[in-house]
Write a structure and sequence with these properties.
eight-stranded mixed sheet, binds copper (II) ion, globular, Immunoglobulin-like, mainly beta, 435 residues, single chain, disordered C terminus, 2 domains
Length: 435
């Protein structure tokens, strides 16, 4: 694998047949059959991951990438996994969600000795239940997860399953997050909650590929969360059923239609839907800070502040000074603000109607009637039928109902408007924020 784009599904050429998944901005790990055992080889090692065009991160991952490649097996398969450690410290792998012998569960110190630097360990077990799983280290976890060590695992059902319907397209990806200061490359591993890059498979919008489907395809999306917070994942234009969780397929009586499903930390969610509405449908985390990239989280709110005079004085001290947030943050997506090297704009992405003003955990479900079966290539922007786009109204407008608040539309100034206190921090060479 030599690129960060979504690879077509890996159709099995040995072992039991199944319908393979498509890993968003990722790929499936090939295996080798050895006397009826499926053998995989994962190599834990430092990697460089392009988060989106214009930004690369120095991460740790597997087989050259963070997250590692997806592992796909079939219920009942005997699986042998070689794990080689090329990290600067010891590691282990936990097979999150699997039924397996206790000594194969991968918790260093508890179930096995840690895998020392340069060593190879072997794990072996039968993939007993079909479902959606993950793998990640269970040794110096705080560091190794913050550095991007994780991967997806799908166990397909053996033959027909009463609770797992066949689908036309089956996507999977992991939710992950990093704290990488603007202008730098390595995540801050001590960060507990305040991450600044919210990613799917270690990619941020506009670096996340769209999920491309054919109209009337039955679509499945599997999502695993290895960040430190929950993510309400929201799909536009369709309703889906949560058909599977960490514990396997959801009983039919417990399924309900939703347009947002919360994926808590350490959880997996599998959703199914019929893609029967053509268009480019937003698909994203509903926490609005999670659809933004770094830079913006610490900017002061200046909506309603009249500070042109102050800005002129500051500009005399700092020629590059730029007022942000006075009219909202939409300017950020359009203005040519000088950014430190290796830094993504806070809000970005160009659509057919202008800036999308998004970042982080955002992509699109692209539904097209003329998309070929098995074709995952981006069809470009949706061509809307005439008369179906919201547009400017220039005709007469009738009086509209509204609440009349005290003070009209804005609060009257309080206190002495002449007194102002201003704090200025000069931008530092090589990064940092300008306030
Ligand atoms: Cu989120």
């Amino acid at each position: 694998m030599d690129k960060a784009t979504t690879q077509p599904p890996l159709v099995p050429n040995s072992g039991q047949p199944y319908n393979p998944v498509v890993t968003l901005n990722g790929w499936t790990l090939p295996w080798r059959m050895n006397a009826g055992v499926k053998e995989f080889h994962l190599v834990a090692e430092p990697v460089v991951r392009e988060i989106a065009p214009g930004m690369k991160a120095h991460l740790w991952g597997y087989n050259g990438q963070s997250p590692g490649p997806t592992i796909e097996v079939v219920e009942g398969d005997r699986v042998r996994l070689f794990v080689t450690n090329r990290l600067p410290e010891h590691t282990s792998i936990h097979w999150h969600g699997q039924r397996l012998p206790n000594g194969m569960d991968g918790v260093a110190g508890l179930n096995q000795p840690a895998i020392g630097v340069g060593k190879t360990f072997v794990y072996e077990f039968v993939a007993r239940r079909p479902g959606t799983f993950m793998y990640h280290p269970h040794a110096d976890e705080m560091t190794q997860m913050a550095m991007g060590m994780m991967g997806f695992w799908v166990t397909h059902p053996k033959g027909k399953h009463p609770l797992i319907d066949p689908v036309d397209r089956d996507f999977c990806f992991l939710l992950n997050a990093y704290d990488i200061d603007p202008g730098s490359y390595t995540p801050k591993i001590m960060t507990m909650l305040n991450f600044n890059l919210w990613t799917w498979n270690s990619r941020a919008f506009p670096g996340i590929d769209p999920l491309v489907v054919r109209k009337n395809d039955k679509v499945r999306i599997r999502i695993g969360n290895l960040t430190m917070t929950n993510h309400p994942i929201h799909l536009h234009g369709h309703e889906f059923l949560v058909t599977g969780t960490d514990g396997g397929p959801t009983p039919k009586s417990a399924r309900q239609y939703e347009v947002t499903t919360d994926v808590a930390v350490g959880q997996m969610r599998q959703v199914d839907f019929l893609a029967d509405e053509e268009g480019d449908w937003a698909f994203h985390c509903h926490k609005s800070h999670h659809t933004m990239n770094a830079m913006g989280h610490d900017v002061q709110t200046l909506i309603g502040v009249e500070h042109r005079g102050v800005a002129r004085q500051i500009t005399r001290l700092i020629p590059d000074y730029m007022v942000m947030g006075e009219r909202g943050m939409a300017d950020m997506a359009e203005m040519e603000m000088p950014l430190p090297d290796n830094t993504l704009p806070m809000m970005t992405g160009t659509g057919p109607f202008g800036s999308v003003e998004m970042g982080g955990m955002f992509s699109m479900l692209k539904v097209r009637k003329d998309q070929k079966p098995g074709d995952y290539t981006d069809p470009g922007w949706y061509k809307h039928p005439p008369g179906t786009i919201a547009h400017e109204w220039t005709g007469p407008i009738a009086d509209h109902a509204r609440f009349k608040s005290d003070g009209g539309q804005s609060m009257p100034a309080q206190g002495n408007p002449a007194a102002r206190e201003v704090r200025v921090r000069k931008p530092v060479a090589g990064g940092g924020h300008a306030h």
